[in-house]
Design brief:
Blueprint lengths: L10 E4 L5 H12 L3 E6 L4 H9 L4 E5 L7 H13 L4 E4 L14 H29 L2 E6 L12 H21 L4 E8 L8 H5 L1 H10 L8 H12 L10 E4 L7
Helix pairs in contact: 1-8, 3-4, 4-5
Length: 251
Amino acid sequence: MTSPFSLEGRVALVTGSAGGLGAAYALALAGAGADVAVHDRSAGDETCEGIRALGRRTIAVVGDITAPETPERLVRETLEGLGGLDILVNNAGTIRRAPAAETTDEDWLAVLDVNLGAVFRTCRAAGRHMLARGRGKIVNVASLLAFQGGILVPAYAASKGGVAQLTKSLANEWAAKGVNVNAIAPGYVRTANTAALQADPVRSRQIVDRIPAGRWAEPADIAGGVVFLCSAAADYVHGHVLVVDGGWMGR
């Protein structure tokens, strides 16, 4: 009997997957049986090598995710290079920290474009293909700041709140057409994006003290939730934002 968590025969595209959380997602999908297109601004050779070591096919697709033409090209290159596209994980993101009163228009727009505008355009590009086939899985990467306001990250919080609502909106349109659109909301994870928080001993201790699990997450801690949402086990899950946070939101 085939496991409902198996991704054998599936092809995935993971944006922003040369390192960090994106690489963890790509490797976890490959470990579950998927072939994976690895996207980033530069070739994700290390991630591709890890995928090949798991016995799966992979290609590197390179481009600025905010360029209007990039999402359509990424979908096309995935279809041409791996012969399909069953799964999209919208992981590419950015963060800029500053008090709201000192946040520039440039920083505001840059964060919104990467974290929300590009997510919509990539969903749209992949969704057209999936809708035509009547099948597909899209997982957007939200954040705990889809629920909370955060500190010194107004654009990031606004963008991730938008990702959560975009996920629900697309699910309302596409669920009956065979396309699952969900999101994952990671808690505090040890990545380059959180380096400033990790380096601040007071703030880092405040964060750990609130997490019932008693530690920061590692990227691999989040990846299982992505595999679940991409698998047949989640076929009846639509428009959900899955929080993986060590218990932070329940505190």
